[in-house]
Structures are given as structure tokens and as C-alpha cells.
Amino acid sequence: MSRKKSNADTRDLTLHFNHDMLVVHRRYEVVSIINDILIGLWFLAGSICFFYSSLMMIGTWLFVIGSAQMLIRPVIRLSRHFHLQRLPQSSGDF
């Protein structure tokens, strides 16, 4: 049972992005990656501090800092969304 594919079935999806959109997306992506690295460092350092009773208070504060930075993650994404919304629309797909 062979069926011949129509042109609509074989077309590739082509998306056209505005240069400004790509620049904004890349900048926010870098900020997000740096934020994720810092979150990992705070939690790792906090975990190590919990091995020593004298550093337990510092470890607790590092966990608080890491938790606060986890709240920054959606703020970065939301900021990127609003920034992209303010850019002039291109004549492409978006």
C-alpha cells in the first residue's frame, strides 16, 4: 500500500527571524546560563559547608541565596518575553 506524498507533506518548515530578535534571545540566554551556574555554585558550596558544624550558618545562607536566584530564573524568561514583544515585527513568519 504505497501512497504518494503531496507537496504539502514534503515541505520543510522555514522560520524567518529578525536579527534583533536573535541578538536579544542570545543575550538573555547568556544571562540565564550564568544564573544557572551561580545557583549550582551556591548549592554546592552550601552542601559542603554542612559537613562542618562551624560552617552550618554560612551553608544555610548559601542555600537561601541559591533559592532566591531560582526565583530569578522566571524573571529572566519573562523579561526576555517582554523585550521581544517590544521589538518591531518583521515581515517574516513571526
From TrEMBL:
The chain crosses the membrane at residues 30-53, 59-76. This is YrhK domain-containing protein. Keywords: Membrane, Transmembrane, Transmembrane helix. Residues 26-81 form the YrhK domain. Pfam families: YrhK. The keyword Transmembrane applies. InterPro entries: YrhK_domain (IPR025424). It comes from Kushneria phyllosphaerae. It comes from the Bacteria.
